User: Fold this.
Amino acid sequence: MDGREPQSSTAAAARYTLPPSRLASEDILFCIDVDPESLVEMKNTSVSGRPFTRLESIKQAILLFINAKLAINPDHRFAYFALGKSPFWLKKEFSSDVDSALAAFRGITVDSSSAGHADLTHLFRVANHEAKKSRAQNRILRVILLYCRSSVAPQHQWPATQKLFTLDVIYLHDKPGPDNCPQKVYDGLVDALEQVSEYEAYIFESGQGLTRVLFRHMCVLLSHPQQRCVQDDIDIPKSLTKKSLTVDLVPADQECVPVSSQ
Assistant:
């Protein structure tokens, strides 16, 4: 035996430290699909019994997102784009004012000429330009695309080397059928997301026509791109299924022993 004292396993193990850092405030650019398919009715209805359209539900989901995001950090800012045959501004100035969203919504009109074509190239150019301005202010830019076309895959021309912003997507679509191919559209959206995104980007889809599913997806997008896990590891929202209460019965032949308070 030698005279050395044994080293504790804790001391010998390498320590991991996470240096403190501040998350950058976000400039978030919403891009709302205004194709005629945005007028498809959801399964939910208003108080009067009239079904909500996808576009109306998207507006509600954006307002939910903005209010929740500002509650987390009032320094986040928002601007608004629409996607017809090509993207165009609804409200260009980034603002933390919720009323600016309402003003942008009033400028939305459905583009009947957009059927059969969706080009995201201009959206990416604008986002790239705005991302440079955001970086100059120590902020980051995120684009949230809300897409509604069941048979039109978006097109884009963008170099894979330019990744200055993050693209999240929520895709509302019809059930697969002879006249549509939502899987092909989804695959095209995934390709676009992976090609342009600076940080971990998320894509969610729903063909159920339920506003609560849309709202749930929007709530997950509240997560900051700089502190996200990969999408496959997302385990929220948690299931709220009721758990039955189990009662442990003491066998009759066992004596109950009181617990001392000392």
Q: What stands out?
A: The chain is about 30% helix and 20% strand. Confidence is low (pLDDT under 50) at residues 244-250, 254-262. The beta strands are 26-33, 41-45, 51-53, 77-83, 87-95, 140-147, 166-172, 203-206.
